[in-house]
Amino acid sequence: NNMIKITKYLLKENILTLFTSPSCTLCEPVKFICEKVVKDFNKKNRSENKIKFEQINIFEVEKWKQEYEYRIPVVHINNKEIWSASFNENKLEEVKLKAIIESLES
Predict the structure, then answer these.
(1) pLDDT at 17
(2) Which one, of 59, 62, 101, lies nearest residue 80 by Cα?
(3) Bridge partners of 80?
(4) What's this model's pTM, rounded to 2 decimal places?
(5) β-pair type (51-57, 14-20)
(6) At CA 86, angle to CA 5 and CA 67, rounded to 5?
(7) What is the SS3 assignment for 61?
(8) pLDDT tens-digit readout, 69-84
(9) Predicted local confidence at residue 92, as pLDDT
(10) pLDDT at residue 7 above 60?
(11) pLDDT value at position 15?
(12) What is the pLDDT of residues 34-80, one digit of tens each?
């Protein structure tokens, strides 16, 4: 699975990034899932291996607007894309994101 392979290249400081826009109606549920999974992971994982959550408004950075305007929401871990609305899945599943994040520990 591509999502699992990505975790092999993670950095010490892990960053989960949600690419979004103010008008993105699909982004709110994805934001909720990302925030919940990060919060749960950081609460459970009291070590230095924490995850930072950030959002990027694609319309504030031309590079991201060009790349993601028709694909948001898009989720990255450490600058590697792990999910987007254009994937075959129509919603980000909390269980899958949780599994990816928990694999950061290994």
Answers:
(1) 97
(2) 101
(3) 77
(4) 0.79
(5) parallel
(6) 85
(7) coil
(8) 999 999 999 999 999 8
(9) 79
(10) no
(11) 94
(12) 999 999 988 887 666 789 999 999 999 999 999 999 999 999 999 99
Pairing type for strands 51-57 and 80-84 reads unpaired
**Which stretches of 26-87 are DSSP H helices?**
27-44, 62-68
Edge to edge, the sheet with strand 80-84 lists 51-57, 14-20, 74-77, 80-84
- Residues 6 or more apart whose Cβ sits within 8 Å of residue 82: 2, 3, 6, 75, 76, 97, 100
Which residue in this structure is represented by tokens 């609460």? 43
The number of beta carbons lying within 10 Å of the beta carbon of residue 71 is: 14
Q: How far is residue 81 from each of residues 1, 9, 46, 48, 78, measured CA to CA in Å? A: 13, 12, 26, 23, 8
Q: With contact defined as beta carbons under 8 Å apart, do 50 and 38 qualify?
A: no
